[in-house]
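Possible regression after last week's pipeline update?

I re-ran a chain I had predicted before the update to compare outputs. Posting the input and the new output here so someone can diff against the archived version. Not blocking, just want to make sure nothing changed silently.
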Amino acid sequence: MTEKTHYRKAFDSPYLSSADIVEPTVLTISEVLFEPDKTRRTKDAFNTAYFKEKEIRPDEAVKPMILNATNSKMVRQITGSPFLEDWQNVKVMICVERVKNRQEYVNGLRIYPAIIKKKILTPSQVESWERAKQSYLNTGSLEKVLAHVEMSPEDQERLTKECANAMA
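New output (post-update):
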């Protein structure tokens, strides 16, 4: 199948648009800056997300994305912080959806949490188990360990006990 060209490509926006996203795409926000509109169509400033990935597809650069109010609220929800400076190294999934813009419906970008399949960790995985224990001891947080792996409730309890014994 040959790639088709979206009519909006002709307008060459400096920002990511619905013409750039052909399927749900996972990108990593490297930072969000509050900065003036690069199109110079307005004097407004916007929350602008920049991404770690350099290409959205082979030979097609990733552009920064203006975060409207809806997408800004979603990134706040994903990160748990209302501060732009905390919106770094965040994996998000970007989709195209029909959204209402003033009086009409248009294709717009929506951000969602990226669904990342985590590995299941058990005590039988000795090296990984020791790394998880070290992480728990360093951060004092089971939640930080569970951000990277899945564990049964019994194994979570075991990890907590092993770390409590190590600290005693």
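Follow-up from reviewer: compared with the archived run. The chain has a mean pLDDT of 89. Marking as no regression found.
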